[in-house]
From TrEMBL:
<dbReference type="InterPro" id="IPR008258">
    <property type="entry name" value="Transglycosylase_SLT_dom_1"/>
</dbReference>
<feature type="region of interest" description="Disordered">
    <location>
        <begin position="67"/>
        <end position="140"/>
    </location>
</feature>
<feature type="compositionally biased region" description="Basic and acidic residues">
    <location>
        <begin position="84"/>
        <end position="132"/>
    </location>
</feature>
<protein>
    <submittedName>
        <fullName>Transglycosylase SLT domain-containing protein</fullName>
    </submittedName>
</protein>
<keyword id="KW-0812">Transmembrane</keyword>
<keyword id="KW-0472">Membrane</keyword>
<feature type="domain" description="Transglycosylase SLT">
    <location>
        <begin position="170"/>
        <end position="235"/>
    </location>
</feature>
<keyword id="KW-1133">Transmembrane helix</keyword>
<dbReference type="InterPro" id="IPR023346">
    <property type="entry name" value="Lysozyme-like_dom_sf"/>
</dbReference>
<feature type="compositionally biased region" description="Polar residues">
    <location>
        <begin position="68"/>
        <end position="77"/>
    </location>
</feature>
<feature type="transmembrane region" description="Helical">
    <location>
        <begin position="12"/>
        <end position="34"/>
    </location>
</feature>
<dbReference type="Pfam" id="PF01464">
    <property type="entry name" value="SLT"/>
</dbReference>
Amino acid sequence: MLEGKRVSRISVRGFAVASATAVTTVGAVVGVAAGHDQGTTDRVEATAADTTLLADIPAGQNVRAQAASLTQQADTQSEAAETAAKKDAEESARKQAAEDATAKKEAADEAAKKKEAEEKAKEREKEDKEQVSSRSATRDASSFAVKGSYSTAEVQAMARSMVPGDQFQCFSNIVNNESTWDYTATNASSGAYGLVQALPGTKMASAGADWRTNPATQIKWGLGYMNERYGSPCGAWSFWQANQWY
C-alpha cells in the first residue's frame, strides 16, 4: 500500500518521471528484502519528497494565473498604445500649429506688400495729377476783360481762376512776399517788376505784350516760371522759404 500511495501522487513533471520513481521504489523494497543497502531506499524517499505533486496545487489555479497574466499584458499594451497615440496626436497638433502660423505670417506679409504697392500707386497717381494740374492753368489769361486798373480782390480772383486749387496757397504765399498783390510793384534797386517780381520785368513779354498793365498776363508768366524751374508753385515756395528768393 505504500507504493500505491506514492504512485497516485504523481509529480507535475510527467507520467514518465512518476513511473520511474515507482519502479525504483519497488526495486528498493526488493533490495531491502534481499539484504541490500538501506541507502537506496532513503534516496528514493528524498527525491519523492522534493517533488511538487498535482495534488498539492489547488484546482483551476493555473488557469486563473494565466488569465491574470494575459489581462496584465493586455492592460500594459493598451496603456502603451494610448501613450503612443497621445504623443502622435500632440506632435501632429504641434506641426499643424506651426504650419498654420507660417501660413498666417505669409498671408500677412503678402497683404502688407499688396497694401504698400497700392499706396505707392495712389501716391504716383496723385503726383501725376498734381504735376498735370500744376502745369496747366484752369483759365487762360486772355479770357479776362482788359481794364485800366484792377483791385487786389480782382487780381486774387484772377489767380484763383488760373492757378490749380492745390497750388494756389503756395502761389499766394510767394506773391504776398514779393509784391503784396500789387501788379505794378517795382523794386527800385533790382528792377524786378509785377506780382511775381520778374527780373527783369521784360521776361513776362513771353506771356503777353500787356505784361506791364495786365495782372492776368503776369500770373500766367509766373505760373509757367514756377512750374518750369521748381515743378510747381509749392516747389517754388519751399525753395523761397529756405532762401528768401526763388
